[in-house]
Amino acid sequence: MAIDLPPVIPPQASTAERIEQYAAAQSDSIIDVKIGEYDLRISGNRYLSREQIDLIMGVAKTPAQAVNALNQAYYQLGHLLVTVYFAHRNNMIFAHVINGHLAAIKAPESIYPYFSGLIGDEDLSRSEFDSKRVLANLKSKRAGLDYAITYQLSEDPTAFTLVLTESVKEDHDSTDISVSVNNFGNRFLGRYFANATIKHDFSSGLEASLSYDRALTELGEVNGGDYYDGYTLRVNYPSSYGLYGVEARYTEYERYAEGEISTDNGALLNDVLCGLPLVCDLTASLGLNLDGTATEQSLLRLMAETSSVALTGEQVISSDALHRFTVSQRLEKIDSTINIDGFGTALDEPQTTLELGLKYNKLIRLFGVGSQLTVQGFVEAGLGSDEGTLASDDREGVVSTGRRTGEFLVARPRIGLKMAVTDWATLKTDVISQFSDGQQLPLQQQFFLGGAAGLNAYLPGVLVGDSGVYSKFALESNGLPFFGFTFTPAVFAEYGQAWYEDASGEAGDVRSLADIGFSVRAALGKGFVTEFLAATPVYDDNLDENALSQLEVDFFWRLSLTF
Q1: Does one domain contain both 61 and 191?
Q2: CA distance 31 to 92
Q3: In terms of Cα–Cα distance, which of 138, 137, 132, 131 is closest to 325?
Q4: Whose CA is closest to 313, among 333, 294, 332?
Q5: Do 381 and 509 fall into the same domain?
Q6: CA 513 to CA 27: how far, in whole Å?
Q7: From 4-13, 165-174, 292-301, 498-507, the region with the lowest mean pLDDT
Q8: DSSP E strand boundaries for 450-504
Q9: Do 248 and 116 lie in a common domain?
Q10: What is the pTM of this model?
Q11: How do residues 308-324 score in pLDDT, each as one tens digit?
Q12: What GO cellular component entries does it have (predicted)?
């Protein structure tokens, strides 16, 4: 339950004389309606038009139904503190609408600050209350507390006190431990990965999680990888102002890779970069020579290390039962290096970035079908001056690590639509994109596809660029129960493209791929989830087909257990 919306205030019995006194001061808002053999006189109405009232009264068979329907209509429109007082005299039914204000809030000290800003509101709406409730609800769930909401009236019928009564949730579990294995692979190395995560919710509302990712190189298909270890720590707290947190990540890996070394300049380090798969562009393994020099292949040993610390924030601007609008911020410091044994530092990209975002979700009816629309937009800017290997290459029209810059501006618009086309299936459409401002981006900001990132017929990193677009269309079952499991089959089609900015010739081509496939997800409660995905290519453009076939996969799978 956590924190529910305030309940409907039921109609209140009064006297005809008292209602007439109230109505006398508002004679211009009196509406008379005929209900069977009775006359219904409505006074004090602010929010319903005459057409709306006639529609409500048109379906009422009795005066009691009419009064209840009128009272319910105000609540459905989002007016939480509107009360209908009624009385009966002969064949006349009096209904007076009291438009209340929030005079006070009684709540435990831990939850009071989330709602205190509503005190004094002359027309408390559902959206205003829910916007405050979102963060309070998150805190109460983490703390294992439920809150029942009631009203307290005073001698002034327009003054309401909102009362939140706390209770302990008996089945609250504050700690989750999850382990998972998969063969989705990684953009940098490996095919089989394992993850272990522990998440704990504190009674204060603070949530902390620690994750460890490891490449299972013992299982083969390591793509030249020796090892891969990744650690992620997240801590966040839902205050009355927003959800604020800290994220820290550290990743290190070592691998061997075939790199293209220039034969024109004696194999200098700068001549290694563009031909080195995953340092500059995975498409180097697809037979593309991006810097235009004569090259030869050589086995190189890479040692990579990435660390980052980020401050995050998200605030609720507006929320109710049908929509939610939030804004977010992320300030991040990143250090990313790749060293090549025998050559030195191949990549050194220290940077500071600021991301501003917005998210909007809305339940709508589209073509007569219940649907959910999700619109997101993020803008990320590089704040630091260029250091390390950033902006170290003054050649024009080529793609190289030295052409990248930490002074960039990137837009990432996204849109998603879910439509309940039948009782048993949902049609899903998702479009994800990234557009650079004409700059080549550091490794951590690049747009890439393949595997879990999209395009399930290929390994991660099959498409890499500074800008790109990905779209997916899926028809998914709403869930089929079988022997205690819930199976969710789906069929899908995917399309993706990526390109490098500020590049000429073949290096600047838009590379595109498309596939179709199916997936099956099986879940047993929240503790057991497994998934199988398979896709087949149907289209490619500006990619070497022989080399591309080496990046195709038969299927992906994952298994996750949560305790």
Answers
A1: no
A2: 13
A3: 131
A4: 332
A5: yes
A6: 70
A7: 292-301
A8: 463-465, 467-477, 480-482, 485-499
A9: no
A10: 0.90
A11: 999 999 999 999 999 99
A12: type V protein secretion system complex
- DSSP single-letter state for residue 164: E
What would the 3-class secondary structure string for 330-353 be?
EEEEEEEEEEECCCEEEEECCEEE
Q: pLDDT tier at 286 (50, 70, 90 boundaries)?
A: very low
CATH code at position 514: 2.40.160.50
Question: Exposure of 34 by Cβ count < 10 A (0-12 exposed, 13-18 middle, 19+ buried)?
Answer: exposed
**Sole residue written with tokens 């995905």:** 533
Strands of 38-43's sheet in order across: 12-13, 82-89, 92-99, 38-43, 31-35
94 pLDDT exceeds 60? yes
Q: How many other C-beta atoms are found inside a 10 Å radius of the C-beta of residue 101?
A: 15
The answer on 286 and 156 residing in a single domain is no
Which 3 state secondary structure label does DSSP give 227?
strand
Residues 115 and 35 in one domain: yes
Number of independent structural domains in the chain: 2
How far, in Å, are 367, 451, 487, 495, 546 from residue 517 at the CA level? Answer: 27, 12, 17, 12, 21
Q: CB atoms < 10 A from the CB of 55, how many? A: 13
Q: What is the dihedral of CA 41, 46, 51, 52, to 10 degrees?
A: -90
Contacts of 291 (CB under 8 A, 6+ apart): 262, 271, 274, 275, 395, 398, 399, 400, 507
Q: Judge residue 550's burial from the number of C-beta atoms within 10 Å of its C-beta, 0-12 exposed, 13-18 middle, 19 or more buried.
A: exposed
Per the structure, the complete domain to which residue 67 belongs is given by 1-170
